[in-house]
Amino acid sequence: MAISITQIIPELLKECPELQPQWDEYSACMKERASDADFFSGAWLCLRIQNFGAKGDTNFFAPFFGFLERLITEGDDELKALATEGFLKGLHKSNSFSIKPGPEAFAVWMGPKATQYWQQLCEAKAADDRLKDAEEEDARLHSVVFRLRPARLWGDYGSILMTGLASRDKESGNLILDRAGPFAPPIFFPTVFPSGRCAVITQSFRELLEDAGLGQLAFRSIIKHNIIDIPWHTWDRLAKFPSVIPESGEPEEFILDRENSDEASQEMGELWELQTPGIPCEIAREESEGSSSSSLKRFVVKPASGNYQGLFSPIKNPHMWLVDEPARLLFEQHAGEWVQFDYVSAVH
Questions:
Q1: What Cα–Cα distance (Å) separates residue 133 from each residue in 86, 129, 288?
Q2: Distances, alpha carbon 21 to alpha carbons 8, 25, 45, 48, in Å
Q3: By residue range, what is the domain housing residue 96?
Q4: pLDDT exceeds 50 at position 179
Q5: Are residues 117 and 149 in the same domain?
Q6: Is the pTM here over 0.70, yes or no?
Q7: Digit-coded pLDDT (tens) for 190-228
Q8: 104, 212: one domain
Q9: CB-based burial, 129-157: b 16+ in 10 Å, e otherwise
Q10: The dihedral sign for the CA sequence 300, 305, 307, 310
Q11: Is the pLDDT of residue 270 over 90?
């Protein structure tokens, strides 16, 4: 193929003029740092091709993947690497984070060489997933307790929508909360500077925890200061970004300078700060011994034996929450969409 790296974008746009807006957007954003090779092999184009596929807008996929096949079969080593190690690997990586549209949605458009490389990526991912599952099962079986933490959603945008913004009332010490509503997860973890995260639960989840008998739990009332009516929980949680993004691009703008909704606040119901009993133990980070690319977060607890039952915190770290297996199952059943667990084994 008589084409150089610097000619790749003009040639691509000849084949696929539908990508002109993406190139213009990239060039305007990157300015003097704009690069033909970086655009083609970087996350910018990969994510946009994935979004086209998710929307079913595939009119230009045949010429696009035809152009990609020519790079692989006719290009020099640099162009082949750009097409495979650059674009295809980037597309596969970005596609792995979402069920939609799925690897097969792209494979049907690929030529023989691209398909061969794509299959190798899919097989490597499947092997990595199997290894990760085995490591997780081994970690679960050897864990004495589990560290409870918030799930991930839409990066910083999801963090703000799930947890809101929090501070402390100077006189009462009660938590003051600004957040999206009327929906609130059963449990969420806003950060209060400079002390750290706290755990907040809904009234219905409080009742469930009390009935479960998970230990000497205490509950402190919360001041709902500003509840913004945003139906964020109805948006596609498998997407990389929320359906709506603030005009400024700043996640805090979901909450700041927005009017309080009395209706949303009332529908949300009462919220409580969860306070857990402190247990004399020490938690230290342990480097994962797993060999998969998605390494596990493992911790160790000292001493090896202790009153590690129900829901509790290390006495010196009230901003970390630990649960035993029955409590983990309860959280998984009633709040599984909103929490994750790290494995905590014992030091003998």
A1: 28, 6, 14
A2: 16, 6, 11, 11
A3: 5-127
A4: yes
A5: no
A6: no
A7: 988 777 889 999 999 999 999 998 888 999 999 999 999
A8: no
A9: eeebeebeeebeeebbbbbbebeebbeeb
A10: positive
A11: yes
